[in-house]
Amino acid sequence: MPARNEAAHIHQATTSLPEWIDRIIVVDDGSTDETASLVKNAEIISTGGIGVGGAIAAGYQHLVKSESKQRWCAVVMAGDGQMNSSDLPILLAQIINGQADFVKGDRSAHEDGLSAMPIRRRLGTWWLKHLTNMATGLSIHDPQCGYTVCNDRMLQNWDFSNNWNGYGYPNWWLLQCMEYDIKIKEAPVKAVYEGQSSGINIFTFLPMVSWMLLKGLFSRGVRWYLLGRSKATLTQRATISIGFLGGSALLFSIPLIGPVGLCGIFGLGVARKIDATLLRQLETIQVDPVA
Predict the structure, then answer these.
(1) In which element (H, E) is residue 26 found?
(2) In terms of domains, do 186 and 72 share one?
């Protein structure tokens, strides 16, 4: 549970969890208020203000080093109380049944939808959803949701020397999951907004994360399709490569060639469709059910 200056919410966030949870670890990321002193019935580790992504990675590493050889799952819930603990069973189910290594919450699939989410966040989520899916080849509905569960084997094999410490960590983790062949699923969770404020500056966050995802798209595209490290046919590789590279080139050329550059959207769309279809066909990683 990453937390920074969450004195108003951390007590409720930690005491409202189900009794069957074995361990609660609060990662105090440089709080200057009373967050740490208000934590009850939980372990506390400190990361000194490196960012929420770094705090989560530190919590994961703490678990990997301290957990026994029994099978276990790690759940990430925010210290500001924006995650409903009643959604935990549906998130855990796909891990326990061996259907996934990593399960992300999907607020859009909950019966309440995104009605509680501020409009600015909804717009940013919409933009990053499409960019994340293009970069990863996945079809994730709510990539920005930080309510997640992963299994022990995923974390035990993870390279923590390379990490994204800031707010773009959900997108970065999805990019890395594609490199590790992690099986990803989503489950509906409730969006909770009860006065919590976001520390995200949208004018710096969106460009930074968008650039990270674009670099991820081209890096994966070069390895998988230009260099042929996927199981795609030559025709599929050529179509995806031309679609992604040509489509991007056209869009970036709009200042020079005008509206004609919008044709790049078609190329990106075709490449995206073929890429996503191939990824669905290549889902071969199976995980043993957790006892």
Answers:
(1) strand 25-28
(2) yes
